[in-house]
UniProtKB/TrEMBL annotation:
<dbReference type="GO" id="GO:0055085">
    <property type="term" value="P:transmembrane transport"/>
</dbReference>
<feature type="transmembrane region" description="Helical">
    <location>
        <begin position="82"/>
        <end position="103"/>
    </location>
</feature>
<dbReference type="GO" id="GO:0005886">
    <property type="term" value="C:plasma membrane"/>
</dbReference>
<dbReference type="InterPro" id="IPR000515">
    <property type="entry name" value="MetI-like"/>
</dbReference>
<keyword id="KW-0813">Transport</keyword>
<keyword id="KW-0997">Cell inner membrane</keyword>
<feature type="transmembrane region" description="Helical">
    <location>
        <begin position="202"/>
        <end position="227"/>
    </location>
</feature>
<keyword id="KW-1003">Cell membrane</keyword>
<feature type="domain" description="ABC transmembrane type-1">
    <location>
        <begin position="78"/>
        <end position="281"/>
    </location>
</feature>
<keyword id="KW-1133">Transmembrane helix</keyword>
<keyword id="KW-0472">Membrane</keyword>
<keyword id="KW-0812">Transmembrane</keyword>
<comment type="function">
    <text>Part of the ABC transporter complex UgpBAEC involved in sn-glycerol-3-phosphate (G3P) import. Probably responsible for the translocation of the substrate across the membrane.</text>
</comment>
<dbReference type="Pfam" id="PF00528">
    <property type="entry name" value="BPD_transp_1"/>
</dbReference>
<feature type="transmembrane region" description="Helical">
    <location>
        <begin position="258"/>
        <end position="280"/>
    </location>
</feature>
<feature type="transmembrane region" description="Helical">
    <location>
        <begin position="115"/>
        <end position="140"/>
    </location>
</feature>
<comment type="subunit">
    <text>The complex is composed of two ATP-binding proteins (UgpC), two transmembrane proteins (UgpA and UgpE) and a solute-binding protein (UgpB).</text>
</comment>
Amino acid sequence: MSDLDYSPPLVRNTRRTLVYMALIALSGVILAPFVMILVLALSSPAEVFAWPPVLVPDTIRWDNFARVFEVTNFGRAMWNTFMIATISTIGIVFIDGLAGYAFAKMRFPGRTTMFLLILATLMVPVHVTIIPLFIMFRSFPLAGGNDLFGSGGFGILNTYPSMILPFLATAYGTYLMTSFMKMLPDNLVEAARMDGAHEFAIFWKIYLPLAAPALAVIAMFNFTAVWNEFLIPLVMTSTSDMKVIQTALADFSDQETVLWNLLMSAVLISILPLVLMFIIGQKHLVRGVAVSGSKG
């Protein structure tokens, strides 16, 4: 509501009530699937297929969450996902931050052309690059039984690097960090250079801390994207011990049956870390988005 709204109190209250009702209805539409997932996760197999649908199970099956780890190797999949998402997020914060500093504060031949080429990759869906990545990783020299020319083995397929390297840098993160770094004062660079500081020290000790809001946005978005990634781990891995959460969810089904209650329990377990991350980092995320948007 505007502070200059001179409408009669009845009109203002009616308008406010309608807005709240619309927001409550919209929230219900958004939350309804998650409520259904929770109901199914706490239900028995018979209640999953009951008609009309059971909104409150007769017996709350808390043991479904424990059975998730008994039926499949879901704990290993969660650990793999956590490792891949954490390492790639640390890498993307450092690499995109360093690239943003280089494009914003350094002068070198071809800077503009290189930056435009990076931006051009935004128009290419990341999954289009899966086959080239697969060939590159399979032909990685002196790894996985390969010789110096990348032949004879499987390279770095079915390893952590094959699922981390595709996410170590993004065009969006580079663009965001470049735009943010350009808004930071140039006199800090000039003063540090006059004091004899080298470029990496200027980036690491001065500009990286100042870019913390933008880095928080990149980190949280990248962690979420990697945590939910399905296709790249599916293509790059071939053994059960290297599965991630999204590929491990398929273990709850076969050609004949689907363990819907356990599958929904696994889904809840998988989204819990993301929910906790956004609850803890909500303040930093909102601040980062606001600052990044205002400076863009």
